[in-house]
Write a structure and sequence with these properties.
alpha/beta; Rossmann fold; binds UDP-4-deoxy-4-formamido-beta-L-arabinopyranose
Length: 324
Amino acid sequence: MAILVTGGAGFIGSHTVRLLRALGREVIVLDSLERGHKKALLGAELIVGSINDEALVEKTCRQHNVSAIIHFAAYKSVGESMSSPGMYWNNNVAGTVHLAEGALAAGVQQMVFSSSASVYGNPRTTPIAEDAEIRPENVYAESKATMERVLSWYGETHDLRSVSLRYFNAAGASLDGVIGENWSVTTNLVPLVMKAALGVSGPVQVFGNDYPTPDGTGIRDYIHVEDLARAHVAALDYLAAGGASTTLNLGTGVGSSVIDILDRTANEAGHEVPYEIVERRVGDPAVVFADPSAAERVLGWTSKLTLDDIVQSAHAWHASQVSN
Ligand code: WQD
């Protein structure tokens, strides 16, 4: 019985594929390689193709006796989603429909879905629990909220059982430095701080220091990518044991500011990280962090790695890529 991992050549996908294989699970990856990187798969079996190809999904599920799917494949750039929304409706939302149709045609009825805390938009209160209002503020976030609803309805109409995992801010790299994030396409803070720390870019642009927070900069819940990988395995096991469909936050429950990230990176790098304060980024909430208690209750999962683990592993990974 194999696990089909869509988007397995991506950042969180590749760390999850590696963990599954280390645990002795049979894995088959479906990735278009449009934004994923084959090298990150470390030799895992790969089918290059699209989740929109229902026939390919069905054939793959039948040929590999797939028991469950982890669905990572999606575009994830907030800015791109607002300038090219059709890409997000087609790839993220329609792609999920085609994936579900192909899977169900092959009798696969268990799916772990890669959702996002961005579905909460600008939260009214923190920490954020799963019953907080869903208020997407961009097409990317709306696509994730819609994908959750699509899967929920497939649960009503076709008994597809799913666990939607709402990631907070995924960051870091494998602790042994073997795989990590590809910073060439990211706009996220941690890899951008590493670029500045390693002298690969100019100063970090800090988007505002006049927020109602202790040091004035934005606060987020940064969670290590290896903690996220463990949560996906726990969600697979939960579904395999007959667990009902559910939606769970994946965060640490701890908020850290932009300055926190800069200070810890400077400590790790042994020198200051150049940055400059600029205007706020439109749409940025001041404070976002999770109430992670439901994932602990339902999956028996909690985050174990710290912000220092994130900074240390990200810095080591990106430094290794610069020197290659
Ligand atoms: C983090 C903090 C910025 C860049 C986004 C998506 C979310 C998820 C994670 C996929 C904020 C500040 C950032 C910079 C800065 N992605 N910042 N200068 O916006 O919390 O969430 O990525 O699921 O869906 O919305 O992440 O890394 O962009 O920002 O000051 O150059 O860093 O203001 O406070 P964000 P981020």
